[in-house]
């Protein structure tokens, strides 16, 4: 019998090894593709089961001394998440007046948005003292029937001792913990109606004192690791979560 040279045997062995490796790789790739396809199908099913809605008009309510420009970043984030700019509105009010009047103005503003868009309800996103304006509208003025979602970002919902620095103004008197205004909006059910409520708060806030003041009983309260009071207004991560909450 003719003997094969060692070099030829090594060549045959290498060829067999390569073929086996290619077969194994193809099998692994096929399994990976199957797993990916399966995961994709599962994700698609979940998305189909929980459709997101970006057609709800959103009304943004600024905080003490704020204005519509506070929401430039937020509106951009909402548009990236599917909202049309024609469904994004910023309500402005008098920071030095009276929050009861400001809440009444918010009621009129929401009615105007509903008439303009044809929507039966709007979503509200507030910041800081805007929490007081929003809560008075939803709870005392019955605005919850016109609001699908309320997102309070660092809202002064139970007041803040920081307001002691501006007690010359009625709004700051109302924003101080223990005020009759705070008592009125926190008595009983803090999240009335069918409205979905969520808050975002942080120990690094620095303005809402105590920082837990933002939390509402009955709401989904989100503790942000560390964010400053004004920093929220340009925090695209938190704003993205707010947008997804409202789209849910």
What are the key terms here?
7 helices, alpha/beta, six-stranded parallel β-sheet, 248 residues, single chain, disordered N terminus, 6 strands
Summarize the structure.
The protein has 248 residues and is of the alpha/beta class. It has helices at 6-49, 72-80, 99-117, 130-140, 170-175, 180-186, 236-247, and strands spanning 58-61, 88-91, 122-127, 147-153, 196-201, 220-223.
Task: Tell me about this structure.
By secondary structure, the chain is α/β, with parallel strands linked by helices. The chain has seven helices and six strands. It has helices spanning 6-49, 72-80, 99-117, 130-140, 170-175, 180-186, 236-247; strands at residues 58-61, 88-91, 122-127, 147-153, 196-201, 220-223. The radius of gyration is 28 Å and the shape is globular. 37% of the residues are buried. Mean pLDDT is 85; it is low at 1-50.
Topology record:
Blueprint: H1 6-49, E1 58-61, H2 72-80, E2 88-91, H3 99-117, E3 122-127, H4 130-140, E4 147-153, H5 170-175, H6 180-186, E5 196-201, E6 220-223, H7 236-247
Parallel strand pairs: 1-2, 1-3, 3-4, 4-5, 5-6
Helix pairs in contact: 2-7, 3-4
* Unreliable residue runs: 1-50
Largest sheet: 6 strands, parallel
Structural class label: alpha/beta
From the spread of the alpha carbons, the general shape counts as: globular
β-strand percent reads 5-15%
Helix and strand run: HEHEHEHEHHEEH
Q: Would you tell me the overall average pLDDT?
A: 85
